[in-house]
């Protein structure tokens, strides 16, 4: 009885502010989107830079990049590097004022102390050879020996708990400390983790229409997953004296769900999928918008005919809006994003965190790109929904060594949750996180961000590139 009472208290604590925050954030995103749409109606075309930003834009080619550094309880201490090469062309090219760049290539290498590897080669050409076609290509090597699995759908919303303990936990730090203890000769230190190796290739072509506001996308993706579970393996633990030791892993949450037949994809395997998408874009400058909107709809269709071992459909719809309420008085941008995703029952469990935005894929819910302050992939399911609001204030600009910089302060609020089925969509049970970020705009096109997010159960620090959306 005490355990049930503790579970209810933990659930109430996690959702206490969610209803009012959800209403407020829905209103904010709706107002931003409507204002952005009204602004868009007066715009001649998408990606039309302001005179000030156009004057700051570099001609021809240049290189940016810097060492990557990150720390979070998901990653541990991470390090690597990312280098960008941009080709902007010259000011006498008509595309100079209407494209963020003509060609962009970046190469990233990243490792962390908790066993994450994420190496990435990316190419993007918004107007290839002056045509209305945009070409993107990504080759990614991903390996995470501590991939998170907290259950899917509504089960992921349950309070933090593992079989070795008779209680649930409000704090993720207390939860993981208890998991690392030894219970009857085994430890639950890996109860919510598994080892995932997953290289990915994505390639797509977009056709620009309607004065470059509408993009129609077609592409192909291929990935291969190797899933390794920790059940029965010797892992790090803590003995009765609080000292580090080693012990066999008790059955993990993943192993239990696989044994019960709840999951698809327990043995990993191939996914080959067709990606189709359409988007509507009126942002003034893609890497760092001041006004406009971006709405996209993407469909992934995996089938044996495309080299996949799984048959599934994934549909994502999202809208983002950007408004500068008083541009003559302050360089201030109100930004909002809403997303909703549906997947069919044949989707492998390790792939259900994928969010196939037409511009760039993300994963979640939880972590840097969705619910900051929750663990990566804390809430994953066949249906997922999320809302985010940000206030972006550029409070200073300066030049250093012929490079142009701007500093941006960003308070934010994130909401989201996972569901078992599309028919279960509700306004209750949403999870909330909040925080702030400092972002550095480098030569307009490169944005470096340091975010700090807090949630009811955890906190996170994230150092990365680009706005969240």
Write a structural description.
The chain is mainly β. The protein contains five helices and 23 strands. The chain has helices spanning 2-15, 18-41, 51-56, 172-179, 253-259, and strands at residues 61-72, 76-87, 103-112, 116-125, 133-148, 182-183, 186-187, 193-197, 200-209, 214-228, 234-238, 244-248, 269-281, 292-302, 312-323, 332-343, 354-355, 362-363, 383-400, 403-419, 431-442, 446-455, 459-465. The chain has a 17-stranded antiparallel beta sheet that branches. Strand 3 and strand 4 (116-125) form a beta hairpin. The longest helix has 24 residues, at 18-41. It is globular, with a radius of gyration of 23 Å. The chain starts with a helix and ends with a strand. Mean pLDDT is 87; it is low at 1-15 and 42-46.
Could you list some keywords that capture this structure?
17-stranded antiparallel beta sheet; 23 strands; 469 residues; 5 helices; mainly beta
Topology:
Layout: H1 2-15, H2 18-41, H3 51-56, E1 61-72, E2 76-87, E3 103-112, E4 116-125, E5 133-148, H4 172-179, E6 182-183, E7 186-187, E8 193-197, E9 200-209, E10 214-228, E11 234-238, E12 244-248, H5 253-259, E13 269-281, E14 292-302, E15 312-323, E16 332-343, E17 354-355, E18 362-363, E19 383-400, E20 403-419, E21 431-442, E22 446-455, E23 459-465
Antiparallel strand pairs: 1-2, 2-3, 3-4, 4-5, 5-8, 5-9, 6-7, 8-10, 9-10, 10-13, 11-12, 13-14, 14-15, 15-16, 16-19, 17-18, 19-20, 20-21, 21-22, 22-23
């Amino acid at each position: 009885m005490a355990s049930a009472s503790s579970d209810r208290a933990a659930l109430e604590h996690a959702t206490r502010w969610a209803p009012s925050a959800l209403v407020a954030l829905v209103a904010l995103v709706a107002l931003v989107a409507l204002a952005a749409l009204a602004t868009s109606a007066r715009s001649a075309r998408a990606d039309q830079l302001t005179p000030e930003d156009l004057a700051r834009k570099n001609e021809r080619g240049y290189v940016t990049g810097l060492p990557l550094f990150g720390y979070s309880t998901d990653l541990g201490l991470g390090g690597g590097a990312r280098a960008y090469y941009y080709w902007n062309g010259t000011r006498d090219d008509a595309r100079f004022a209407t494209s963020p760049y003509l060609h962009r290539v970046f190469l990233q290498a990243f490792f962390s102390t908790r066993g994450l590897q994420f190496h990435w080669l990316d190419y993007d050409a918004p107007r290839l050879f002056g045509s209305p076609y945009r070409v993107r290509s990504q080759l990614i090597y991903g390996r995470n020996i501590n991939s998170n699995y907290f259950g899917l759908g509504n089960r992921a919303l349950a309070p933090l708990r593992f079989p070795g303990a008779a209680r649930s936990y409000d704090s993720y730090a207390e939860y993981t400390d208890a998991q690392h203890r030894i219970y009857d000769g085994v430890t639950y230190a890996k109860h919510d983790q598994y080892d995932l190796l997953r290289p990915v290739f994505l390639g797509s072509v977009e056709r620009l229409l309607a004065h470059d506001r509408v993009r129609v996308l077609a592409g192909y993706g291929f990935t291969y997953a190797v899933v390794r579970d920790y059940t029965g393996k010797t892992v790090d633990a803590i003995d009765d004296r609080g000292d580090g030791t080693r012990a066999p892993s008790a059955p993990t949450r993943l192993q239990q769900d696989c044994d019960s037949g709840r999951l698809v994809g327990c043995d990993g395997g191939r996914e080959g999928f067709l990606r189709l998408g359409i988007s509507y874009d009126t942002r003034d400058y893609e890497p760092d918008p001041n006004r406009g909107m971006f709405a996209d709809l993407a469909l992934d269709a995996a089938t044996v005919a495309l080299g996949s071992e799984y048959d599934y459909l994934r549909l994502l719809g999202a809208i983002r809006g950007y408004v500068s309420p008083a541009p003559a008085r302050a360089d201030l941008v109100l930004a909002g994003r809403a997303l909703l995703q549906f997947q069919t029952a044949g989707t492998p469990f390790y792939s259900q965190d994928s969010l196939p935005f037409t511009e760039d894929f993300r994963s979640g819910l939880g972590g840097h790109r969705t619910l900051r302050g929750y663990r990566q992939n804390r809430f994953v399911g066949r249906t997922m929904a999320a809302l985010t609001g940000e206030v972006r204030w550029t409070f200073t600009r300066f030049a250093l060594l012929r490079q142009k910089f701007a500093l941006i302060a960003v308070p934010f609020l994130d909401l989201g949750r996972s569901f078992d089925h599309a028919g279960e969509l509700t306004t209750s049970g949403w999870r909330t996180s909040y925080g702030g970020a400092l972002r550095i705009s480098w030569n307009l096109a490169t944005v470096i961000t340091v975010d700090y997010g807090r949630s009811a159960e955890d906190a996170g620090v994230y150092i990365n590139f680009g706005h969240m959306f």
